[in-house]
Specification:
The complex is a heterodimer. Chain A is an alpha+beta fold. Chain A has 16 helices and seven strands. Chain B is globular. The chains are: A alpha+beta, B alpha+beta. Chains A and B meet through helix 2 and helix 3 of A and strand 2 of B.
Chain lengths: ~350, ~100
C-alpha cells in the first residue's frame, strides 16, 4: 500500500516460496495492487527469481492490455459527450494513472468511471446507448431515480464496463456532496493525443477519501493506496479539502479514510493524514457512517438516505422507489416485489 | 513492408496510439488495431526512438550502432516490428523529411 511513499514498508529481502509468492500475487490482484507490485519488481526493490518475475510481467501485461482498451473506450465516450456538450470528469482509473502515479503503467483499472453533471445525466446515458451501443445492465429503480438520487448508471460497451457516476458513493454521504461544485475545477490530462478533464486536485483527494471509506466493503487496499497517492498531489495543507468536506457533511468520511490509511499503510506512510484519523465528527455523521459501512450496506444506505434528502415529496419519491421498484428493475434481478422486501428485511436483521 | 520503406521515409509514433511500458517491453494499441501489440525488449527502445519523427535510414543506423550490427542486419531486425506497427496505425509514415 505504501510502496514508493515516504515511510512506507520495505519489500522483503529474503526469497519466498512459490506458494507464498502465488498467495501474494493473488492478493495483489484481488486488492488492486498489482501495479505497485510490478513497480517494485521493475525497480528491483523486490528481487524475484526469473520465473516469479515472469509471472508478474505476464499478469501486469494482461492487466495493461485491458487498461488500453478502457482508454480507447474513454476516448470514444469523450468524443461523443463532447459533440453532445455533455460535461464530465474522468474519475479513478485513467485520471489517477496519468495524474497521480509516477507512470500510468503502475495503476490498473477494471472499468471506465466518469462523473457526469446531474442535469446532463439522462442525456449521457442516452448518448452512450444510442451512439456507442452501450447496454444498460440494470435498469434504474424507477424512471428518473438515477438522475435525482442515484450514484451511477452501469453500462457495458462490448467487453468494457462504463460507469456513469452522478455522485461519489451510494447512500447519504453521496447525496450531500455539492455536485455542481465538482465542475468548477478541473485538471487536464492527455490520452492518445486528446485532452480530457479530471477533477481538480482537492476534489480528487476527497473522492479518494469517499472511495476508500465507502466504496467496497471491506475496503480494497488499492483504494487506500490511491488515497495516499492523491494526497501527494494536493499542494500544501489539507485545510481547504477539510473545509469542503465539512460543507458536504463528510468529515466522518475523511476521518474514516484517514483511519484506513493508518491501519493499512502505517502512521509514517499516512503522513499528515494520520491526525485526520482523530478528527472530531458529529454523532449524526458518525452514525450515518456506521450505517453505510456494513455488510448490509446495500439495504442500510437507502434507509439512511431518507434522513438527508431535503423535502417531503423527494423523500416520498425516494421511499417509493426503494420499496416498490419498477417491474423492469425487479425482472433484471430475478426478483418479485415480495422477495425484494423479504431480502431487505433478512439482510437488515442479520447485520443489525 | 518496412523493408521496402525508403531511407527518406519518415516514421513517428502516432499521437493517437495508446501505450504502456511493461516490465519486459512495451504494449501498444494503435488506432486501427483491435488488440494491443506486445513488443518485448528491445522493441521498447525502438518505440522510444519514434517519439520524434525519424527517417528510416537514420533509424537503421541508430539501431545498428546500438547493437553492433551491420546496416542490412539492423534493417532486417526492425522490419517486422515496424510493419506490425504500421498495420496497427501505431506509427505513421510520411515521405517528407522532419521539420527542424
Amino acid at each position: 500500500v505504501g510502496h514508493g511513499i515516504d515511510g512506507g514498508s520495505r519489500w522483503p529481502t529474503a526469497r519466498i516460496s512459490d506458494d507464498e509468492f502465488l498467495r501474494v500475487l493473488q492478493m495483489a490482484v484481488n486488492q488492486r495492487l498489482l501495479g505497485a507490485l510490478a513497480e517494485a519488481v521493475d525497480q528491483r526493490l523486490w528481487s524475484l527469481p526469473i520465473a516469479q518475475r515472469q509471472r508478474v510481467a505476464e499478469l501486469h501485461a494482461s492487466a495493461m492490455g485491458h487498461v488500453l482498451k478502457l482508454e480507447r473506450t474513454l476516448l470514444q465516450v469523450a468524443e461523443v459527450f463532447g459533440a453532445c456538450r455533455i460535461e464530465f470528469r474522468v474519475l479513478k482509473g485513467a485520471a489517477l494513472a496519468h495524474l497521480v502515479y509516477s507512470d500510468p503503467t503502475w495503476r490498473g483499472a477494471a472499468d471506465v468511471d466518469i462523473l457526469v453533471r446531474s442535469d446532463h445525466f439522462d442525456r449521457a446515458v442516452t448518448a452512450a446507448v444510442e451512439q456507442l451501443g452501450a447496454v444498460q445492465s440494470m435498469p434504474e429503480l424507477r424512471p428518473g431515480f438515477d438522475r435525482e438520487f442515484g450514484k451511477e448508471s452501469l453500462l457495458t460497451i462490448g467487453e468494457v464496463e462504463l460507469d456513469l457516476h452522478r455522485t461519489f458513493v451510494t447512500g447519504p454521504f453521496g447525496l450531500t456532496v455539492d455536485l455542481p461544485e465538482l465542475f468548477h475545477d478541473q485538471t487536464e490530462f492527455t490520452i492518445g493525443g486528446r485532452q480530457v478533464l479530471a477533477l481538480g486536485a482537492e476534489h480528487r483527494f476527497l473522492h479518494a477519501c469517499y472511495d476508500a471509506a465507502l466504496g467496497d466493503y471491506p475496503v480494497r487496499l488499492g483504494a487506500v493506496r490511491d488515497l495516499l497517492m492523491t494526497r501527494r498531489m494536493v499542494h500544501g495543507s489539507l485545510d481547504g479539502a477539510l473545509a469542503t468536506a465539512q460543507r458536504w457533511h463528510g468529515t466522518a468520511v475523511v476521518r474514516r479514510a484517514a483511519q484506513l490509511a493508518v491501519e493499512h499503510a502505517g502512521h509514517a506512510a499516512a503522513g499528515d493524514l494520520a491526525p485526520l484519523a482523530l478528527l472530531p465528527v458529529s454523532r449524526r455523521e458518525a452514525w450515518l457512517l456506521r450505517s453505510s459501512a456494513t455488510p448490509a450496506m446495500s439495504y442500510s444506505r437507502p434507509l439512511t438516505c431518507l434522513l438527508v434528502i431535503p423535502g417531503m415529496r423527494a423523500r416520498l419519491r425516494y421511499a417509493r422507489a426503494i420499496v416498490a421498484p419498477s417491474p423492469a428493475y425487479l425482472r433484471s434481478r430475478g426478483w418479485t416485489r415480495r422477495s425484494h422486501i423479504r431480502r431487505a428485511f433478512e439482510h437488515l436483521s442479520r447485520h443489525g | 513492408m518496412a523493408e521496402q520503406l525508403g531511407d527518406d521515409v519518415v516514421l513517428r509514433a502516432a499521437p493517437e496510439s495508446l501505450v504502456r511500458r511493461l516490465l519486459d517491453g512495451v504494449l501498444i494499441l494503435g488506432p486501427s488495431a483491435t488488440e494491443p501489440l506486445r513488443c518485448s525488449e528491445p522493441g521498447d527502445v525502438l518505440w522510444s526512438m519514434l517519439s520524434e519523427p525519424r527517417p528510416v535510414g537514420e533509424l537503421v543506423k541508430a539501431w545498428a550502432a546500438l547493437f553492433g550490427l551491420a546496416q542490412h542486419e539492423a534493417r532486417s531486425d526492425i522490419a517486422a516490428i515496424l510493419a506490425a506497427w504500421l498495420d496497427a496505425g501505431a506509427i505513421t509514415a510520411t515521405a517528407e523529411s522532419p521539420t527542424p
